[in-house]
């Protein structure tokens, strides 16, 4: 299910699907459409797609019991305000409660074999985005909001 609205700062779009790896391409395509619509540079689009992949795969692998995938929704919204232009990604799922932002930061200076397993995806999300927020909603379940500041929109002037 996909819905669209507005242009540039009012741009929004959403995909709802089962939390299965087979649906990852359509979730990444959602971000690609937003990037094209907003005329993002290659680096910003790459960062947003990596953020999306890491967050969605975490839900697909860990939110639900093995073999029982549940719902996953990804919404993208462009916002333009006094703080500038940014893209807001909101992931929702009905899986077991889990705040990925409560995980201890990964010590990337430590040798890989000395680190506890896991957490690198959350580390990447933190490094590539500007703001993250988690809440558990009684109706929506896990709600993870990730914001990335964007460069000013390219001008159409010559």
Automatic annotation (TrEMBL):
Which CDD domains has this protein been placed in? HATPase_RsbW-like
- Cross-referenced Gene3D superfamilies, in alphabetical order? Histidine kinase-like ATPase, C-terminal domain (3.30.565.10)
Checking InterPro entries in the record gives:
Anti-sigma-factor_SerPK, HATPase_C_sf, HATPase_dom
Give start and end of each Histidine kinase/HSP90-like ATPase domain: 19-147
Q: What Pfam families does UniProt report for this protein, alphabetically?
A: HATPase_c_2
- What molecular functions are annotated in GO for this chain? protein serine/threonine kinase activity
Q: Which UniProt keywords apply?
A: Kinase, Serine/threonine-protein kinase, Transferase
User: What is this protein called in UniProt?
Assistant: Anti-sigma regulatory factor (Ser/Thr protein kinase)
